[in-house]
């Protein structure tokens, strides 16, 4: 195992848009990550959506969370700056994540998963319960959840619409078509462009499709015993999620012991980005409880 600069960055570089691109080699595979915030307390490790690279998570959320805790975000195997081949199952992504957490020398972590990252986060918490202190699941659902295996058919027309209208497909996939939704979408996509230098490279079409196969398989696999989850869990979504239907958030809240559920009105898959100020306040209160 070798790594480049695994210490948390200094206070002067705490803004996520300036965070250094770092990497650590685990089992012969290089994993790209960024690390921000102070070195104190329990680190928060963040797992992102389908096709996402380091530049695809809302920097404003990371910056606010990193005011009081160390926040680490990583690229999945085969995506962005990470080496290897994108796994075909969520289980393999979770195994990678557990090894990465160990390689970074982190004993106990909090985990935030968005969308695909929420699938991975659940699997991490089930496989390595002693490592996960608190769990935040956003825009996500359980294995075998309603409509999760239909992500491809739902997404392709809107990905095409994005190409035809010269818009990022997340404009249509993550937000409602109301005035509020469209305004939030534009603001979010602007925030994603804030980093100007040393941006991560986008996913290859092959990796994008392999991840879709993993998502589809998650939607078709047998339900997991979420009653075994002992980590306090916060579940957050919009009320109009078309990618991982919102009903899945209610299902998670029903099956995970003592879970807290937050549903934002007139918000979609990217509800946490639309309501980032409120989400950060709720997430900080939950992590500090």
TrEMBL record:
GO terms for molecular function: hydrolase activity. It comes from the Bacteria. PANTHER family: AB HYDROLASE-1 DOMAIN-CONTAINING PROTEIN, HYDROLASE, ALPHA/BETA FOLD FAMILY PROTEIN. Coiled coil: none annotated. Signal peptide: none annotated. Residues 43-275 form the AB hydrolase-1 domain. Keywords: Hydrolase. This is Alpha/beta hydrolase. InterPro entries: AB_hydrolase, AB_hydrolase_1, AB_hydrolase_fold.
């Amino acid at each position: 195992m070798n790594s480049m600069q695994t210490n948390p960055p200094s206070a002067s570089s705490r803004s996520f848009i300036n965070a250094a691109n770092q990497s650590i080699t685990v089992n012969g595979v290089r994993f790209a990550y960024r690390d921000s915030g102070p070195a104190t307390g329990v680190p928060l490790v963040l797992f992102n959506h389908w096709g996402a690279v380091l530049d695809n998570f809302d920097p404003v959320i990371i910056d606010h969370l990193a005011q009081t805790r160390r926040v680490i975000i990583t690229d999945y195997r085969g995506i962005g700056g990470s080496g290897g081949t994108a796994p075909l199952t969520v289980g393999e992504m979770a195994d990678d994540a557990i090894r990465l957490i160990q390689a970074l020398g982190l004993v106990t972590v909090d985990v935030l998963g968005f969308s695909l990252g929420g699938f991975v986060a659940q699997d991490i918490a089930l496989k390595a319960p002693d490592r996960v202190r608190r769990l935040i699941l956003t825009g996500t659902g359980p294995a075998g959840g309603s409509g999760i295996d239909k992500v491809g058919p739902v997404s392709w027309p809107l990905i095409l619409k994005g190409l035809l209208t010269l818009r990022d497909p997340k404009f249509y996939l993550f937000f409602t078509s109301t005035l509020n939704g469209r305004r939030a979408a534009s603001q979010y996509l602007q925030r994603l462009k804030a980093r100007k230098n040393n941006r991560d490279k986008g996913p290859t079409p092959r990796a994008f499709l392999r991840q879709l196969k993993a998502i589809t398989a998650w939607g078709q696999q047998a339900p997991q015993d979420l009653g075994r989850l002992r980590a306090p869990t916060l579940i957050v979504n919009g009320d109009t999620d078309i990618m991982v239907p919102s009903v899945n958030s209610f299902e998670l809240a029903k099956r995970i012991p003592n879970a807290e559920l937050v549903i934002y009105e007139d918000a979609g898959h990217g509800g946490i980005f639309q309501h980032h100020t409120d989400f950060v306040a709720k997430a900080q209160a939950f992590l500090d409880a």
